[in-house]
Amino acid sequence: MTTTKSKVVYSPSFTDGAEFHIPTFKLLKQDGSLYKGAKAPDIDKDKALRIYRAMVMTRVLDERMLAAQRQGRLSFYMQCTGEEAAVIGSTAALDDTDMIMAQYREQGSLAYRGYTIDEFMNQLFGNELDYGKGRQMPVHYGSSNLHYMTISSPLATQIPQATGYAYGQKLAGKGECTITYFGEGAASEGDFHAALNMAAVHRVPVIFFCRNNGYAISTPAVEQFAADGVAPRAYGYKMDVIRVDGNDVLAVYEATRLARKMAVEENRPVLVEAMTYRLAAHSSSDDPSGYRSKDEETAWREKDPLLRMQRWMEKHKWWTEDDEKKIQEDLRREVLETMKRAQKRPPPPLESLITDVYDQVPPMLNAQFEKLKAHIRKYPDDYPKSANDPAITAKGGA
Amino acid sequence: MAKMNMLQAINDALDIAMAGNDRVLCFGEDVGIFGGVFRATSNLQQKYGKARCFNTPLVEQGIVGFANGLAAQGSIPVAEIQFADYIFPAFDQIVNESAKFRYRSGSLFDVGGLTIRAPYGGGIAGGLYHSQSPEAYFAHTPGLKIVVPRNPHQAKGLLLASIHDPNPTLFFEPKRLYRASVGEVPEGEYQLPLGEAEVLKEGKDVTVLGWGAQMEVIEKAVEKAEKDGISCEVIDLRTILPWDVETVADSVFKTGRLVVTHEAPLTGGFASEIAATIQERCFLYLESPIARVTGMDTPFPLVLEKEYLPNDLKVYEAIRESIEF
Ligand SMILES: Cc1ncc(C[n+]2csc(CCOP(=O)(O)OP(=O)(O)O)c2C)c(N)n1
Questions:
Q1: pTM beyond 0.95
Q2: ipTM
Q3: A397: pLDDT confidence band, cut at 50, 70 and 90?
Q4: Which residues does chain A have within 8 Å of residue B54's beta carbon, measured at their own beta carbons?
Q5: Which of B87, B101, B153, B244 has the most CB atoms at less than 10 Å from its CB?
Q6: Which protein residue's CA is at the shortest distance from atom 8 of ligand 1?
């Protein structure tokens, strides 16, 4: 049975795909004042400070860690720079127990939820304290305590998983939802379309949050899709959608707050498209000068989301220049000190090679491990990272 | 001859193929003006225009499905998958469609013009998702050709052969060697045969077999073994599917011993297939069990990558064990 309720016409009538335009919701101007008629969301001083602190921490961490990568201390890094308002503003509008399924550039969500600088560093350096046991590249964070699913590199795989996770939350009936972040590039993957369709059909409390930052590595959005961004796709799935200025933390917060309300109170998915800009390179391995202009970057730098929020807080007398100086200095110092500590910590134990593949290590994997240990005992100088590991030294030469 | 690294050799092959036939197209994520994240397609858009070298939206199943359609139409698509780890969203299009177009239509249709390039392998601090060697998954699929070059000279000749071959071909490039492997590369068009292994070095005590980045590892291991007075025959398989059973079997008839190495996990890795076939063919000639030196039966790690990888020491040890059996 088809559920189409369309009326019949007797002369051909095409609908132009270009007709679907979606307005952009904004509240805050760059000088920190509100647009005429705009109403700020209900954010008190504590919340504002929590949001802003996470924004600054993300920015400082990004600057320092990129520098660390340049100095060869770190193999790889990815910045959130330019997108802090989109990421942190949306996370702040959720309950702290709502699930986050991120793509990879959302360290701001973790910063907001209280992931410590130590925790960031342990993952970045893949040391013995890294929850992921040094198996994944830097920036693949995860935290079950903070309801943040560990990052997986294959793009868009988290989007249908978010639909499934949120369906489970709906059945559990605790009023929780899931937000999933992705770039406008990843929204081209089949997984994106599958996720939205299933969520709409099954009325799932999930927020699909697209960070439309203009580029997928070197590919500009105009080579990613012909339509007006990602937002109009929601029509095809019969889903509510809002487009928001992604550099406006108040607008992002308010849009996500309302999206969450619809998701948990009415059991339905919502798509949010935050229009922003990837101010940094794609990653530490990328050089954007080959595919975009400095002028373009400079124009976006003038829309810096941190400055905008800072000015708004100053107008409320919640923030001063001195506060700004202090937070910058404190965070810089903390990041540097923590980095030194994390870097000195030993790598994960050799045994981490074979654990967590299954709930228990199967015999054939144990046999492979025994063989590896015997080999390293024979050539300890060639395996400096693990030659002093208890697994190698315990029983002596084999 | 010119000195080139592997990326330059691949770029040169693509350039020659596009210049020689305007039905050849190159596309994939970031391959346009940027020239791909590794720069294998540098300057091709500038030279041949946006219609023949372009960025696709970020969707691997779309890229390969699109390429299948193009190839069925008679074009010669060379699609890039940015990392072999991300070929899996396109798995259905490759194993169910590319591989079976000809068979299911009784040759009414085929996608013989199709080539899919993807950087594979570890040793670059890439962790789980930027290090995999997926050749064995595809080797289980009749209808595909799978090719892995070991250096710039091979890369150019084998890539041109893959592009010209009338079968869908997967071309896995050892990314660890992209810039590290430099060598003399003939100018202009030349092709190296698909389906033929190459005997790189003759020897009489043991055959050591691999492909791609493992050939460099084998070379070092063999150097060590020869210092011990062990004479090694070294073979680069080059084409994983269909593979050159004759050359490998002939070698094992002579040496009586075989060591096979690859980076992918042990179980179900392509070395298993080789070991089974050579055991069947050469049973009465074998002096020792066929040895496999591979990654472990785990995902690819990051920090302990060195421990995990089948390096020259491990291959050397396997050679010795094979001799001393
Ligand atoms: C399935 C898959 N294909 C390709 C890649 C390689 N890759 C990593 S990031 C990226 C671009 C992503 O762009 P977008 O989704 O817009 O997010 P942004 O980086 O702009 O935040 C690509 C192609 C991948 N990780 N996974």
A1: yes
A2: 0.96
A3: very low
A4: 223
A5: B87
A6: A155
